[in-house]
């Protein structure tokens, strides 16, 4: 998972992009990068680290220009980060292009080979983003036949890219001397939205992974970029759009609503906070069916993303709501930590149970999801250590049973606590007296209740249905074999895993 942004303005954009990336920091804390266009010249700075650490005053001064793009990146689990694979990426032919990408190409390895043998393009990293950039550059060269570009030629190139590329991708790119290009894949898996602001110089434009990045710096959310759509904004600030996919269909990633996106964002017409509250409503119905009346004294969330669901559960069940866990906000997310020992330690650093809220009580703990189960075990143990009489655990998401191949670095099936186990078995593993999961259909319906136009979703990590149609058992087995080998070798997958699909720069959780 990553966060991308692109801005076309009449004034310098370096500060605008920096501020937007701060608002998208939750989508990536491994590396950050900004590239600006000053006329036909690109200026770029990128490095490992948080936005505030990567960019200093001297770096910002070196980013002149009234258009540009930026990205924040999340690492692949256990991988050694490489600054060379931080984004944006640049290619100098045929026109000079810089590109940032959120998502994951499932056929990037085949494309990389094709780039080398047929197109004579050298890919210097193991990043699917560099492959994607070169596919776009190759299609622009074919569509233009070496001539000057116009919007129709650019859209023809995007259509060619759609036909060749598989997987998920939201793109922000700058073409030297022409303008900014934004594209969303034909399934609309990863989010991308368009915003604008009226200025004395005319309307200025911005694209970003989440609406919070627009609204937080004063832009107005216009709409979401449609699946398969390309948006091109020329040097005069004129916006051109075209549907470039043969058969587009919207399948938003359901995990954005469950966990990934900020609650104050709106994705594909659905306020994330409202979706999480509706998930709490459906979870409350499930709890009422499975847990005996009187077995719960109080409802507590695991801060922060499960808070809306937990509040609705308490409200629907007529129970007290308490904040029993205090969160240290200066520790990263835990399910992507490199190794169980580090993950176990980080949970205790990240959360502290307040004994006054637990002692002698039957506690219902609500979390957004359960992945490996390591974090859940530690949380249950903390509740017991704090004096809880009984601990019931509820997940606002269904059991995570399958890997995600579209940009979220989920573990392999053998590492997922829900894969091949019953709910009772999982409850015993995490130490809970009882475990309640959300139903898959209820989770989807919670989002549909807000926007009925959303017919289906990418929910592959819950239901095993890979909507791009190119993922089979052999693909998943190759992934798991490579990951196991990387763990045995102690490489953490820096090369082997990225050679399958878990690119550090392509957007991963």
From TrEMBL:
The gene is purF. The keyword Acetylation does not apply. Its EC number is 2.4.2.14. Catalyzes the formation of phosphoribosylamine from phosphoribosylpyrophosphate (PRPP) and glutamine. This is Amidophosphoribosyltransferase. Residues 483-499 have a biased composition (Basic and acidic residues). The keyword Isomerase does not apply. Residues 500-509 have a biased composition (Polar residues). One of its GO terms (molecular function) is amidophosphoribosyltransferase activity. It catalyses: 5-phospho-beta-D-ribosylamine + L-glutamate + diphosphate = 5-phospho-alpha-D-ribose 1-diphosphate + L-glutamine + H2O. In the C-terminal section; belongs to the purine/pyrimidine phosphoribosyltransferase family. Coiled coil: none annotated. InterPro entries: GATase_2_dom, Ntn_hydrolases_N, PRTase-like, PRTase_dom, PurF, PurF_N. It comes from the Bacteria. Residues 2-236 form the Glutamine amidotransferase type-2 domain. Binds 1 Mg(2+) ion per subunit. Keywords: Glutamine amidotransferase, Glycosyltransferase, Magnesium, Metal-binding, Purine biosynthesis, Transferase. It is an enzyme of class 2 (transferase). Residues 483-509 are annotated as: Disordered. Gene3D superfamilies: 3.40.50.2020, Glutamine Phosphoribosylpyrophosphate, subunit 1, domain 1 (3.60.20.10). The active site is at 2 (nucleophile). Its cofactor is Mg(2+). Pathway: Purine metabolism; IMP biosynthesis via de novo pathway; N(1)-(5-phospho-D-ribosyl)glycinamide from 5-phospho-alpha-D-ribose 1-diphosphate: step 1/2. Mg(2+) binds at residues 305, 367-368.
């Amino acid at each position: 998972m990553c966060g991308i942004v692109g801005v076309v303005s009449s004034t310098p954009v370096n500060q605008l992009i920096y501020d937007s990336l701060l608002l998208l920091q939750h989508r990536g804390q491994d590396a950050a990068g900004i590239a600006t266009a000053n006329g036909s010249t690109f200026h770029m700075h990128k490095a490992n680290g948080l936005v505030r650490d990567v960019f200093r005053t001297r770096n910002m001064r070196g980013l002149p220009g009234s258009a540009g793009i930026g990205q924040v990146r999340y690492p692949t689990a256990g991988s050694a980060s490489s600054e060379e694979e931080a984004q944006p990426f640049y290619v100098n032919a045929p026109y000079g292009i810089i590109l940032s990408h959120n998502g994951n190409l499932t056929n990037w390895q085949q494309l990389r080979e094709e780039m080398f043998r047929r197109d004579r393009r050298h890919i210097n990293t193991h990043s699917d983003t560099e492959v994607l950039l070169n596919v776009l550059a190759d299609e622009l060269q074919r569509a233009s036949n070496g001539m000057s570009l116009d919007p129709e030629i650019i859209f023809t190139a995007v259509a060619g890219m759609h036909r060749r590329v598989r997987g998920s991708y939201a793109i922000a790119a700058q073409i030297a001397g022409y303008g900014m290009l934004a594209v969303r894949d034909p399934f609309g898996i990863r989010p991308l939205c368009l915003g604008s602001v009226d200025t004395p110089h005319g309307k200025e434009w911005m694209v970003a992974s989440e609406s919070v990045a627009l609204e937080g710096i004063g832009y107005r959310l216009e709409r979401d970029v449609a699946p398969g759509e390309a948006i091109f904004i020329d040097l005069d600030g004129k916006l051109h759009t075209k549907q470039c996919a043969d058969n587009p269909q919207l399948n938003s990633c359901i995990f954005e609503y469950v966990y990934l996106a900020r609650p104050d964002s709106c994705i594909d017409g659905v306020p994330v906070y409202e979706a999480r509250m509706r998930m709490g409503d459906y979870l409350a119905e499930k709890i009422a069916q499975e847990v005996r009346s009187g077995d719960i004294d109080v409802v507590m969330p695991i801060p922060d993303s499960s808070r809306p669901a937990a509040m609705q559960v308490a409200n629907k069940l007529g129970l007290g709501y308490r904040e029993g866990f205090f969160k240290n906000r200066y520790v990263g997310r835990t399910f992507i930590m490199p190794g169980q020992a580090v993950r176990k330690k980080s949970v205790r650093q990240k959360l502290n149970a307040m004994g006054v809220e637990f002692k002698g009580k039957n506690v219902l703990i609500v979390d957004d999801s359960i992945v490996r189960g390591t974090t859940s075990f530690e949380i249950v143990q903390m509740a017991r250590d704090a004096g809880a009489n009984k601990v019931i655990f509820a997940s606002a998401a269904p059991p995570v049973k399958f890997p995600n191949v579209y940009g979220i670095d989920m573990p392999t099936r053998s590492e997922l606590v829900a894969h091949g186990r019953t709910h009772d078995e999982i409850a015993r593993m995490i130490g809970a007296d009882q475990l309640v999961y959300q139903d898959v259909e209820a989770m989807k319906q919670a989002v549909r209740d807000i926007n009925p136009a959303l017919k289906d979703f990418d929910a592959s990590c819950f239901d095993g249905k890979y909507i791009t149609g190119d993922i089979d058992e052999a693909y998943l087995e190759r992934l798991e074999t490579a990951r196991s080998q990387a763990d045995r070798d102690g490489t953490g997958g820096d090369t082997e895993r990225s050679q399958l699909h878990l690119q550090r720069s392509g957007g991963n959780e």
